[in-house]
TrEMBL record, chains A, B:
This is S-formylglutathione hydrolase. InterPro entries: AB_hydrolase_fold (IPR029058), Esterase-like (IPR000801), S-formylglutathione_hydrol (IPR014186). Keywords: Cytoplasm, Hydrolase, Serine esterase. The keyword Cytoplasm applies.
Length: 296, 296
């Protein structure tokens, strides 16, 4: 048995499953980073499929684990969840901790090309390659997870991550859904700030390679429905940071036309009170494509 | 329409209902204090019954609201929830903030008789009288709640509060349940510290009046089943802070014999990962006695 890459900080029993709170040193990031992995009770008897849930700005793996309530439904349907962190940790790069929407806890799921970020802020490679490989080969829980059945979801910046990772890797993930995603970052203040910092002001081709609204037109691959929920009371939606309608509009005339299911909900804000309210729908969306099980 | 006693800090849409985040100045406590009130969607059409959920040491109303997940099931069954705070706030009594298990956020749901607490730490009166009266007469949401159908639940110190308030007020509450409750505080370090501070070392009669294990022998009134869940991996259970078996033992030979349903669960700890895992059962327990609805 190989040794684990992870330090296990805690194993928490919840909803009949186990939540592993992990830390490791990432060769990709050349930094420390956390991750949580929820293993549902069904894993005792069969390999279970996996949802990677990408969190939003300012979050650690703890926020969604504690407040998103995704694991309640994952335990019901027999789904594991990987909760990655949102940036490398423990670095002290110049300016890294100055903004809540750039640098630490704001990695945007890209590989930065600009200094001082380029050597460490490679969250795209980390999420698509390093982290799942370490999880699926972990001697403690890896053999219980089916690395061939993986879906994506995420919230806000993590919704951006989920959509772009799905669209950039046709067939790699079985489905994608998003809560209040940053859907067109090159046209939103958060995205412009992040991509300017990580890619430079002039490299607009690279910007477009990490923008779901730009990517969907060139996508070719399987087309599971994309579920997107947004609250109309979400201040960031109102401030046009999210722009989910742009993604729907861009899907027209593509293989995704009519398959981007954008649901706008009266009253709901951007918080975990919103995410948890629709967590069941997103878990069921993933389960539908991961297990073929009817959830009706 | 009377004016509200509360300042509404936020109204959050969640699970189709509304979570009101409130602050007010309490005449009973002569202090500021917070409270959250969850109003389920069913309140649009009918008066709904109410669960008062009492939180544990160190908590504010936000912790259980965000992480307990009780409101998800309350929204399903049509139950309102009042989440009171755990002590007066904004005071600067001598030593008030020195300990995490005494003073602020540790009111223990008693009326203190010792100085400097006696003038302010009257959480028993506040929870049994003042707060529900203010909630049920509030012009914003009070008319949607049925003040004649109220049950209790709580966690740890709040489980102690739920059990003792129920047993001290026969018939006032329709049912009670508790997560990892301090069940016999006069024999547990937390309870001894709190009761010594709030009641004085020598007033053991008063101590016993706020100890569920002491109270159950003298209880006469309706006897709805009492549901208690405790995790065997709970460090405070292992340290004998909770002593739920003492309550079961004390119920023998009383009208509650065989009706205290203590469930011990392998692995679970003292956290909200434990509370949320069994939240559905506790909401269903309350609904059974509040609405007569079958939840099977």
């Amino acid at each position: 048995m190989s040794s684990s890459a992870f330090t296990i900080n805690a194993v928490v029993t919840t909803f009949g499953g186990k939540l592993y709170k992990l830390t490791h040193t990432s060769p990709t990031l050349k930094a420390s980073i956390d991750a949580n992995v929820f293993v549902p009770p069904q894993a005792a008897n069969e390999k279970v499929p996996v949802l990677i849930y990408l969190s939003g700005l300012t979050c650690t793996p703890q926020n969604a684990s504690e407040k998103g309530f995704l694991h309640a439904w994952a335990a019901h349907y027999g789904l594991a969840i990987i909760f990655p962190d949102t940036s490398p940790r423990g670095l002290e790069l110049p300016g890294e901790h100055d903004s809540w929407d750039f640098g630490s806890a704001a990695g945007f799921y890209v590989n930065a090309t600009q200094e001082p970020w380029a050597g460490h802020y490679k969250m795209y490679d980390y999420i698509t390659e390093e982290l799942p490989e370490l999880v699926f080969t972990d001697p403690e829980f890896g053999s219980k997870l089916d690395g061939s059945r993986v879906s994506l979801s995420g919230h806000s910046m993590g919704g951006h991550g989920a959509l772009t990772l799905f669209l950039k890797n046709p067939g790699k993930y079985k489905s994608v859904s998003a809560f209040a995603p940053i859907s067109n970052p090159i046209n939103a203040p958060w995205g412009v700030k992040a991509f300017t910092g990580y890619f430079g002001e002039d490299n607009k081709d690279l910007w477009k390679q990490h923008d779901a609204t730009e990517l969907i037109g060139n996508y070719s691959g399987p087309t599971p429905d994309i579920l997107i929920d947004v609250g109309k009371g979400d201040g960031f939606y109102q401030q046009k940071q999210l722009l989910p309608e742009n993604l729907v509009e861009a899907s027209k005339g593509t293989s995704y036309e009519g398959k981007v299911n954008l649901r706008l909900h009266d009253g709901y804000d951007h918080s975990y009170y919103f995410v948890s309210s629709f967590a069941k729908d997103h878990i069921e969306h993933a389960v539908k494509y991961l297990s073929g099980k009817s959830v009706l």
